[in-house]
Design goal:
By secondary structure, the chain is mainly beta. The chain contains five helices and 27 strands.
Length: 493
């Protein structure tokens, strides 16, 4: 182990994990349109009340999103990096004596002049459906598998080049930092209701979900601490408080095998409200001139109590560790016991409990959608992360403008997105019949000087033909929309 990787994992896990982020954010090109159906519930559960379709079944959808300001790939595109992943090499691993191979894709690091961040999320939605009953009620079922990793406010001193170039016997103060990750599945029921008794329609929606946790981990430096590089590949740490936790039930000695054991359970819920002015000239009763929505997303947590460990290391004196204290390990549990031995003198001393909780990536969202012309809409969306628990996954905050063309069997959208209030992105999404395909980061598919992330999503569903009469909702036309209610316009003379 060389000096560049001699880091205690509870504090420097960020630097170890970030290079492995190979990877959707909010899938704005897919979730805003009226025909999105059950997909739209992930942004606001009340949205399904404005779906012109009687029913729909989602066969499959998937999305993956990654963004960071810690490292980047030089002069490449996403597809080129994926196609030639074996050619990716860190610039720090090259020299005159060790020149790079022809066609190498260089991984370089930002200089760390400001706080850095890293977040990656993936979501796979299995069989799901929504179904209208009565005129104004929608019920549904959602099944989902999700993973996420997040780290915000990574101190600039932890930039790769900064921390690796610390002179010998120079003390550096490391601020508080941490990282969280989790993999889980969800089984959710969905309900939305629309009230059409007033000039302004109102709707609310709710999606409660049972959560099954497979894996989770977090690390956190609870206070700033001193770091000093010594001679002979040793490091001195001064006055530190570190918390970390992980699950181990799915870890195996065989790296080629994957098993998913449920190691925790929890509860999550999405809540949403919508106000809309109906469009009497629209293509269905669900059409509107404008629609305003407010939603609370991913409120909940998972409690891990099976094969789970929570650890704490704290010391007020200076502790010196060396490479010998951290031999090469393939099992993270072994690395944790090594840390306990090195800093506390006992491999079991750091263990605090055999259970811990991890919060979902909670966020507050506001959406405003306006009809500009027949089939032409423009939406403004804000998503602000609000982590409610001490240890929670965090999603990117988003501000976006999304113009779109929308028809029953065809739609196009062009999201313009400000990611985490600093990175401007442009996306592109389309729906062709039953197929969705889009990205909220179109630039990653073209050669870029600094490739820092990617985003892509896809969905497949069936919908639209009438099932006959069900309650009062059987008046839908074959085109997917209900017959407009007869309304009498009254005039004053």
């Amino acid at each position: 182990m060389n000096r560049s990787v001699l880091r205690f994992p509870a504090v420097f896990a960020v630097a170890c994990i970030l290079p492995q982020l190979s990877a959707a954010q909010e899938q704005l090109g897919m979730r805003l349109e009226r025909y999105a159906g059950i997909y739209s519930a992930a942004l606001n559960p009340a949205n399904t009340a404005f779906n012109p379709n009687n029913w729909e079944v989602s066969l499959f959808s998937a999305d993956i999103f990654a963004e960071n300001s810690y490292l980047y790939l030089q002069n490449t595109s996403l597809q080129n990096a994926l196609r030639h992943s074996d050619r990716i090499i860190a610039v720090t691993d090259t020299s005159a004596e060790n020149p790079p191979a022809r066609g190498a894709i260089f991984q370089d690091y930002f200089d760390g002049k400001r706080r850095m961040r890293a977040v990656a999320q993936a979501r796979v939605t299995g069989p799901s459906f929504s179904f209208r009953f009565g005129e104004n009620n929608v019920i549904g079922l959602v099944t989902t598998f999700r993973t996420g990793i997040s780290s915000y406010k990574i101190p600039s001193v932890l930039a790769y080049r900064t921390i690796s170039d610390v002179p010998v016997n120079t003390t550096v103060n490391i601020p508080r930092t941490g990282v969280q990750l989790m993999a889980w599945s969800e089984i959710g029921l969905h309900y939305s209701h629309r009230n059409t008794d007033a000039d302004i329609y109102t709707a609310f929606g709710i999606t409660p979900r049972l959560l099954l946790g497979f894996e989770s981990a977090f690390t956190r430096a609870q206070s700033a601490f001193d770091y000093t590089q010594r001679l002979g590949d040793t490091v001195a740490f001064g006055s530190a408080r570190w918390d970390y936790a992980l699950t181990t039930g799915n870890l195996t000695d065989n790296t080629d095998s994957v098993r998913l054991r449920v190691q925790g359970t929890g509860f999550g819920i999405d809540l949403g409200f919508v106000w809309a002015e109906p469009d009497e000239e629209g293509d269905s009763d669900e059409d509107y001139r404008w629609k305003l929505g407010v939603s609370l997303l991913d409120l909940g947590f998972i409690r891990y109590g099976k094969s789970a460990e929570r650890h704490h290391i704290e010391f007020d004196t200076t502790v010196t560790v060396s490479n010998a204290d951290f031999p090469p390990r393939t099992d993270p549990h072994d690395l944790i016991t090594d840390a306990s031995q090195a800093f506390l003198g006992n491999p079991a001393a750091s263990l605090q409990a055999r259970a811990f909780s991890m919060g979902l990536p909670t966020a507050l969202s506001v959406q405003l959608d306006a009809k500009l012309a027949p089939h032409l809409y423009a939406a403004a969306v804000a998503v602000q992360r609000i982590p409610l628990l001490k240890y929670s996954l965090q999603r990117p905050s988003t501000l976006a403008i999304v113009p779109r063309y929308e028809h029953r069997w065809l739609s196009f959208s062009l999201p313009v997105i400000l990611n985490d209030w600093r990175s401007l992105r442009m996306g592109l999404a389309a729906r062709l019949g039953v197929l969705y395909l889009g990205t909220d980061n179109l630039g990653s598919f073209f050669k870029k000087e600094k490739l820092t992330g990617a985003d892509i999503y896809i969905g497949l569903k069936i919908n639209g033909f009438s099932l006959g009469t069900w309650g009062n909702g059987g008046g839908h036309k074959s085109g997917g929309g209900r017959q407009k209610r007869n309304k009498i316009k009254c005039y004053d003379f």
